[in-house]
Design goal:
Elements: E1 3-9, H1 10-19, E2 21-22, H2 26-31, E3 34-35, E4 37-38, H3 42-49, E5 56-62, E6 70-74, E7 80-84, E8 88-89, E9 93-98
Antiparallel strand pairs: 1-4, 1-5, 2-8, 3-7, 5-9, 6-7
């Protein structure tokens, strides 16, 4: 089953766990959807939007569990990115992993992600 990913500050994700759903980061709320990335996109997302940030988590989400609220729409350079129109239910989350910074200042992704 295909997984998609959300990079999230730890404190914001802990709030989501407390209420049982993720309503989005401030940028998501402002844009009207939750920004997600496919496995082949997430390292670029981290480099562009989270460069140098610590205390991040990588949330793996089962795409099919999101139903019609998930849409793939053009973004950077026409690439299709997954956007979730609605809250992210925690039942769709398959794993949450640390996203530490490496010595080179770039985020270190789990081995199963092509970074």
């Amino acid at each position: 089953m295909p997984l998609i990913y959300k990079i999230c500050p730890r404190d914001l994700w802990r709030e989501a766990e407390a209420v049982g759903r993720f309503t989005g980061a401030p940028v998501d709320v402002a844009d009207g959807f939750i920004h997600l990335s496919a496995a082949g996109q997430v390292s670029e997302t981290a480099a562009r939007h989270f460069a140098g940030q610590r205390d991040l988590l990588l949330v793996a989400v089962e795409a099919r569990a999101l139903g019609d609220a998930l849409r793939y729409e053009p973004s950077r350079g026409g690439a299709l990115f997954p956007h979730l129109y609605g809250d992210l239910p925690l039942a769709a989350v398959r794993s949450v992993a640390e996203l530490p910074l490496g010595e080179d200042g770039r985020h270190v992704f789990p081995a199963e992600i092509a970074a």
